Amino acid sequence: MPKENRSRDQLLSELDRLRQRLAALENAPDTRSDPVYWSSLELFESPVWVQNLQKRRSSRPRKNGAIKVQLPDKHLRTVFDAAPVGIAIATDTSCRVIRHNPAAARFLRINPGDNFSFSSPTPPPVQVLHRGRALRPDELPIQRAAWYGEEVTEQEIEFVWEDGVKKTALWNAGPLFSEDGEIIGAIGAFEDITQRKQAEEARRESEERYRALAERLRDVDLPQSEERFYKVFNSNPTATIITRLRDDVILNVNDNFSNLFGYHRDELVGRTPYEMRLWESPEKRRSLVDFLLINSQVDNLEIRLRKKNGGTIIGLGSFSTIELNDERCMIAAVIDITERKRIEKEIARLDQLNLVGEMAASIGHEIRNPMTTIRGFLQMVSEREDSERYREYYQLMIEELDRANAIITEYLSMARDKAVDLKPGCLNSTIMNLYPLLKADAQYGDKQVKLALGHLPPFRFDQKEIRQLIMNLVRNGLEAMPSGGTLTIGTWVEDGIVTLYIEDQGGGLDPAVIEKLGTPFVTTKDNGTGLGLAVCYSIARRHDAEIKVDTSPRGTTFSVCFKAEAD
Fold first, then answer.
1. CA gap 436, 445 in Å, rounded
2. pTM beyond 0.70
3. pLDDT tens-place string over residues 188-200
4. Beta bridge partners of 175
5. Alpha-carbon distance 530 to 510, whole Å?
6. What share of the chain in percent tops pLDDT 70?
7. Looking at the chain, which terminus has fewer C-beta neighbours within 10 angstroms, N or C?
8. pLDDT digits (tens, 9 = 90+) for 286-324
9. Does residue 458 have a cis peptide bond before it, meaning omega lies within 30 degrees of 0?
10. 557 Cβ partners below 8 Å, 6+ apart?
11. Which residues of 232-259 are buried (b: 16+ CB within 10 A; e: fewer)?
């Protein structure tokens, strides 16, 4: 075979291998399609999700009573280490040694790789409880799965350490089988629900106070016992309002309600919630009133309400009917959970970013090395005279390799442990250096970029990362605008907070998209990767900055707020 044909065949073969590895990167980890075989020696080196194992066991027939499991490749260990849920594996049926992934180790307050088993000769000094009762080792999920072959689903377990720390987890577990159908160990996965349990307890205490107030108000004759009524009513720590059911007129609100919504009591009394536009969805309130006329009690209803200044809060409301002056009324107590919902959303988004970033940092270089080799060979072969007629194809392959490399670079930009070089600098100077390039991009699409830079103090930031953040936000804004539009890049400082904003004149963002901004792979572009904004959020997080979004049919503004601490 001629030498040039061998080189071409080698290139095509390596290109095919690269395509397969890229496909594996996009889809990994995915163990749903193939059966899995576990040997006792490979058990800990190649973990698998217990949920997939349980689905596989319930949906696939066993051969000779066994489940066969075939692992993908070594990258599954990376997913095991980066998984946001806790995973535990017993490597034999004695359960004397149980290994945990980093998420489980953080929950259990141990080092990754340390043994943590209540069946070991020296069990950990931790109490394990279920509904207040101490559990024996044979009642724990891993042991139940390994010793009795049980599939444990959503077993709630509380861990109590000697220093008073308490944590709660929701466990699933299942046994692992050899090829002969014998149990050789167990695997479990659990979710940390400590914050959820604490929130439920706080809500339960608030409900008890509310019910006590409601019971006391049932027997109150408002005109004759006004002083006593106000003491009880205003002592409620939650925002509380009383309305008359027959015409929905507001009879009274306590001080906490006035403070939360920004209204004075006199502005509300005698009016209706519909007149004051208190409810974001009036239909939901009408449905609630109709339900109360029959059932008299509704607890823990999540609602959206409006403040006097137009802002929206998310509230958790409890509603009850009472008799006041021979009138049937509704008393409502509302807890503001807006910040809690925002934090929950942010934690979920950061978990996704961390997982993608850690995977990228672990396996990104393994993809780029063969890509560099292939690109070099393609470029070399394309320059040969006898390759003239194929030069267009070679160029197309090189462009696609460059695009794949750009995507991997964006992956690596989200790595959680990426180092940042924070140095004192002027944000306005960085913007001015980028302005010629941004202006050229805009003019190419018959658009304009203008600057509105205020006087800024110097503060510490990474020049390269902030340049990338500005480029990503500006290009997103330009792509969102029609021809003839103007994009504004501005800065200002207030109360020690430096704000960079990019304002476009596009059609605004859909509310469903706003909820997912910063989440990897969420995009409104036909050819987008969904990583540009995720990279911006990662850069902001590494700078301890916050990204805010304001959108309307007239356009969208992205604001990045930095803390300008003195150097």
1. 15
2. no
3. 999 999 888 888 8
4. 186
5. 16
6. 72
7. N
8. 888 888 888 888 888 889 999 988 888 899 898 988 887
9. no
10. 501, 502, 503, 504, 549, 550, 551
11. ebeebebbbbbbbeeebbbbbbbebbbe
